Amino acid sequence: MFDGTVAENIARFGELDPEKVIQAAQRAGMHELILRLPEGYDTPLGVGGSALSGGQKQRIGLARALYGDPALVVLDEPNSNLDEAGERALSETIGELTARGCTTILITHRTASLDAVQKIMILAEGTVRAYGPRTEILTAMRALAVPSPVAAASRAAPRKGLAALHRVPDKKDIHLDA
């Protein structure tokens, strides 16, 4: 959070449109909580301001990302401090963004937030290790996480899992509106 009010933080310290600020907060599941703060949207944050939990800060950051109805949203570890309600709000928000045609890039180590995405790309050491539909990638990940007794006994058998799904996205996978 930056020094300023809740509303200023959501509006990215640019032109503050109260309707857009409230809409972004509602979409991030923060509106009701903000209304309970000492001064609502005018509550100061940052040094000497109101103390928020890590999850509340992340959800205000999510509202900031949603401010102004963007075409592209990049969320880096958006759920690292979220409680169950915050996780639900994040999932609902990602689903809403997808339904509206917004391209959403989610960078995360936690698979719980992947239920709302359509495709997954796994990177390791700067290389694409897997790319494909969410269900295929998650199924392969689960298969690799719990080795079956047959796989453990037969080390000579070729490995499948993520290696079988490895495919770098091509132009038909990328949808950009002109």
UniProtKB/TrEMBL annotation:
Q: Name one Pfam family in it.
A: ABC_tran
Gene3D superfamilies per record: P-loop containing nucleotide triphosphate hydrolases (3.40.50.300)
UniProt keyword Nucleotide-binding, yes or no: yes
Per its UniProt entry, which superkingdom is the organism in? Bacteria
Which residues fall in a coiled-coil region? Answer: none
Alphabetical keyword list: ATP-binding, Nucleotide-binding
- ABC transporter domain: from which residue to which, for each copy? 6-79
A GO molecular-function term, please? ATP binding
Q: By its UniProt entry, which InterPro entries does this protein fall under? A: ABC_transporter-like_ATP-bd, ABC_transporter-like_CS, P-loop_NTPase, Type_1_exporter
According to UniProt, the name of this protein is ABC transporter domain-containing protein
Organism of derivation: Polaromonas eurypsychrophila
